[in-house]
């Protein structure tokens, strides 16, 4: 069995649809149930649903041979996995956002509220900006409104949540989308199966990101 970790939620549903269209389907997964694992023994596939932020852990530690997770997870946690393909799903941006009238004079450290401290630190270091990172776990849009931070760094899809909280995008840091990843040992021992699946998911002109 090739074990495949899919993220729960809308992205996982879109991902499975792409797998099915490429011929890597599993009819069990469409049944209404509380099951988390599904098998297609004929095709040698086992899918399972996990929390999106946990996909890379399952893959890195070998519980899954391959999986699908956002580029933000790969940048923030740097799991020891192979990144095989940009699936062009879940497309969004990692951005700096703040109040429209915020003036950055550069005389002090910029206070940055974020759920992504590693990405934030790397970005501001690359532009030589001193920062004070404030790690939050949710609802970070209110941080500038309450004076906790000057700006936030977060994932932006449509920008609606920002606008509703009187914030606007100031800088785009990195594009984000869903990526196919593989366990390094599995990639060696199940190389043909994984490459066949990767190639099946590749659209014309698809970007292969594995060296």
Give the helix/strand layout:
Elements lengths: L1 E6 L2 H12 L15 E4 L4 E6 L4 H6 L5 E5 H7 L4 E5 L5 E8 L10 E5 L2 H10 L4 E5 L6 H4 L5 E6 L3 H5 L2 E10 L1 E5 L1 H6 L1 H11 L10
Parallel strand pairs: 1-3, 1-4, 7-8, 7-9
Antiparallel strand pairs: 2-3, 4-11, 5-11, 6-9, 6-10
Keywords:
6-stranded mixed beta sheet, alpha/beta, 31% strand, 5-stranded mixed beta sheet, elongated, 211 residues
Polypeptide structure, described:
The chain has 211 residues and is α/β, with parallel strands linked by helices. It is 29% helix and 31% strand. It contains 8 helices and 11 strands. It has helices at 10-21, 55-60, 71-77, 117-126, 142-145, 160-164, 184-189, 191-201; strands at residues 2-7, 37-40, 45-50, 66-70, 82-86, 92-99, 110-114, 131-135, 151-156, 167-176, 178-182. Strands 2-3-1-4-11-5 form a 6-stranded mixed beta sheet. It has a 5-stranded mixed beta sheet with strand order 8-7-9-6-10. It is elongated. The chain starts with a strand and ends in a 10-residue tail after the last helix.
